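Quick one:
INPUT:
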């Protein structure tokens, strides 16, 4: 008879239920200014503070890559809905590359 360690069961469960950060309530889209504040790039950050660099600084990820960002375990994860459907729709609407936007144009659209 083969004995299965409890940690092996936990590892296989984690692989099945991958946590996608884009589906979390704490994953927020922000505008990161570039070129002296004339333009901005879209980035995502974790409002729960889970994305940190080695020196403790907050880490931002490119918006167009957010659908691929996942972790094995997160104590702050709060899902926003069905993962499969949400990620499918998100991938359809994400830009395919990193783009810069003008602050003036976005403000004119909002009016």
């Amino acid at each position: 008879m083969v004995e299965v360690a409890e940690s092996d069961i936990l590892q296989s469960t984690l692989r099945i239920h991958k946590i996608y950060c884009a589906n979390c309530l704490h994953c927020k889209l922000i505008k990161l200014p570039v070129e002296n504040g004339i333009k901005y790039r879209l980035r995502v950050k974790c409002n729960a503070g889970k994305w940190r660099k080695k020196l403790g600084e907050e880490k931002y990820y490119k918006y167009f890559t957010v659908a691929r960002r996942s972790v094995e375990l997160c104590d702050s994860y709060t899902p926003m809905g069905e993962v499969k459907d949400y990620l499918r729709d998100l991938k359809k609407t994400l830009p395919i590359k990193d783009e810069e936007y003008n602050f003036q144009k976005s403000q004119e659209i909002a009016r």
